[in-house]
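Researcher: First entry.
Model:
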Amino acid sequence: MKVTFLGAAHEVTGSATLLTTDRYKILVDYGLEQGNNLYDNVDFPLAPGEIDCVLLTHAHIDHSGKLPVLVARGFKGPIYTTVATKRLCRIMLLDSAHIQEQEAEWKNRKSKRAGTDGVTPLYTTNDANATIELLDETEYDTEREILPGVKICFRDAGHLLGSASIEIKVTEGAETRKITFSGDLGNVDRPLLRNYELPTPTDYLVIESTYGGRKHPERKDYFTQLATIIQETFDRGGNVVIPAFAVGRTQELLYLIREIKDRGMITGHDEFPVWIDSPLAVEATNIYSTDVLSYCDEETAELIRNGINPLRFPGLRTSITSDDSKWINADPTPKIILSASGMCEAGRIRHHLKHNLWREECTILFVGYQAEGTLGNALLSGVDEVRLFGEDISVKAHIMQMEGISGHSDEPLLLSWLSALKDNPPIKVFVNHGADEVTDLFAQTIREVFGWDAEAPYSGGVYELGSHVFCEERGITERIPERTQKQASARVNAVFERLLMAGRRLMAVIEHNRGGANKDLGKFADQIDALCNKWDR
């Protein structure tokens, strides 16, 4: 059994790991990279059609967002995930495809005016729909054989509705080995969701480290903290603009705001409006509002059993069309605006920042992780000016961050999760899904605290798993020398990756035709030769 790290290696986003057995090839997550990255990722090492199945930890785009690419290039196998993740992926992958198509359309209009070559979207709505058809749902805590000799079990990771850690048991000959992928582990005692489940004994472990080396600030009372920010901003006559991930964080905030309204914690601004300005967030809120008893915490479940919708309240308004969105800032009434994207890299939030950043009376409130290189990170770092839609915007608004509401476990919680394995330690721990230095430091912490063998692999790292683990390939360990160089070449690299995948798919198709009729094989060979003659340079 081998494990190959493809993405989220010494980086926070773009999760992708390949597990290879003596008979099967299993991919765990296939996500989009977000923000800037210090390292190139290796090219995908297989034709997508060679993959037997995919295991998906949760619906966030940095874990699921490239699955339609896989499907567009030949993957036809099942994608195993939880019931809630399947429901969320139905809307998130379609939304991502729509963004890919819109961006390609915008770039092509620009290219046409400049007389340069156009681009194609990374994937289309049709690709996303084809991916959704492959989603195969499973329940928590239920062992399931997905291939002969391969069993999986999903455990609640407490990070997002339906998020999971995945246990994989692989039998090769007379030996059975187990590898566990933590997925993204959630913070504890948050609104809506249950706390994470502890891991069961495993031979090998892959653990995230988003907040490795860090401890969340001492948590203030969520309701008082948020109510104070709202009250002070409204008293100044400003808006509270919250860049929030459409799925997960938006719903947590709605839960808090409903309770704040119920308790009458805001004075002088009765029935203040709260806008959800994101079609995706609106759809996700509908999913969170129905049939989630098996996923939510006991407090939320009790509300639902008593007929109370935990995410609905007077003054809640939704914006679907762009005209609705534009009207929000035309209305002078102090209000809360919840809009995506959570890191301010795209979406309607950028329009709200343009209209509110320069106003001293307003507050921009961050409630989630802001990756290095994103606009959200820059604002938290204290920049005086940003450029939006070709215009320089002064940063005069109050830039604030809500403490303790992170969706990820910090280092103490990660170590607490690991401590469940101290009586049956794993042979090897792999640390991924963290910033460059963080992954190495957290691996060192694991070695010091538990005395276990722990390592932070790089993209392209290949490890043979047995009674002892050894590394066959180290992967890409050199940083990109100039960030601008990667940005300039990103489109070229993406197109060349498509070409490589097409070549690998061709090899898989050739192999599938082994034993075919000589006449058909000869015709196939002639077609390939003609193609090579056309493009050989």
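Researcher: Second entry.
Model:
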Amino acid sequence: MTMKSGGKKSVKKKIMMITACVVIVALMGYAVYYVAKSNSKEAELKPDGIIQVDRGDLISTYTSSATVESGRQGNFAILDGTKVTGVNVRVGDMVKKGDVLATFDASSLDSMLALKKRDYENAKKSYQEYQKSAAEAPKQSAALKKQIAELEKKVAQLQKESEAETASAAATTSAAGNAQLDELKASIAGLLGNTRLASLLVDRVFASNGSVAQTLSAFQNLLGGSLMMNSSSLQSMMSSMGMGSTELVSASLELVQLKVQDSVLSMQVGGSLESVYKSVSDSAEAAYLQAQATVSQLKKNWVAETDGIIRDVGIAAGEVYHDRAASNPASSINVTSLLASLSTGNADITSLLSGLFSNSPSGMVVEYYPFTATFLLGKYDIAKVALDQSVKVTSVSGQEFDAIVSYISPVAKESSDINISSLMGSSGSAKGVEARITIPQPDKSITIGLDVEVSIELEKKSNVLRVPIQSVQISEGNEGYYVFLYDRDTKTIHKQMVKTGLFDGNAYYEITEGLKEGQEIIQAPVKTMKDGDKVKLAANG
């Protein structure tokens, strides 16, 4: 009994061992199969991964970004004191040709225009009078020089007679005023042409015991005041300072007057002031004509000349406009003051003329269409783009607009913004020519100062062999381009070298050699694919 029992256990044990061996063998077989399958050259593709070489049209397109610029502005000027009755637009509004932008009460405009006209007439008259006096100046100058020569002899004689008195008076001059006195003597000497006479004149004033401040003030008034000083006012000035009415002082002051008059006549003879008078007259005329045009426009109200967009509004309905920038608008022309400044050497002609007449401020600005946009063409695209060529412009919102090429510079310039595709095959130099397009009818999505995308058709070919760009591979070592042909009979792929032609810049290459219409190729090869690999098509779905 015991032996039978042991025999049964042995059989069971053998069965279990055999079963375990079978399982192990099965697992090993599966592992070998899995590894073998993993190392297989066969790849699996979806049916649409195999495509046929076909024919079609190709268009080579140049694309770039371009900066939008203003084409033309409408600046609506307004005069100080104009009453605004209505404003119909806000900044950013699009307007059409003929739209009324603002309305005004023109009742007070005629009086403003009359002031501008008076300014012009005064300036013109001053210029004509100067031309007349300049014509007579040579004769007057000759007579004046004769008077000066005679008076200089008289002063010289009086000078000798007063030398002793002058020396005594100079000793009483305070040390504190010496620097100011020296400067004063130099100023007067410039007019008199005689340093000794200038010294005598200053010392004579101080001999009257006047203060330094009084003396300086007196001579500043003398040198910087009216050009035509009368003798009675000079005598009154000297008497008030306790100077008396000595013959030498009177003769010296008279000589100063003659010298100043002679310097003015010299400028007239030389014509050095004629340009100043003419500039004043021309500026006044321009201001009057501009005011005339402004008044005419205000009376008709402001109307859009063509389609555009409102850039700036500086007026408000119901207000009386006042130009805050013009603190002292010129209402008259003071040519005498201008000449006085010239005679003392303190004239700033530019600032004086700019202050005489002010331009009318802008109350509204409209950016009129068309807009323009500027970009750079690389050297390989210059010959392919022509004036008046059609352009597609895409705004930031994705809207597309028609445009044309309106300018191509004849001169190249450096830039870091040239389209990279236009530099292919070049030496890498980032040079190009500036090109400009005109956008006739933009909208709010095209903003001045920002970029838009520009697309220009460069070349078109019809009915050519073509393949998708992802089908074309570049061989190692840059030896050329190739595709993978698919053989349905053997279900294998083979490398086929090809030559490319036109590239549309987006989707397709033209194939000029290496393929025929109808041949099947791998649409998008992966890097692991090799010549001779098997390819299995996956079932649909």
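Model: Note on the second entry: The mean pLDDT is 75.
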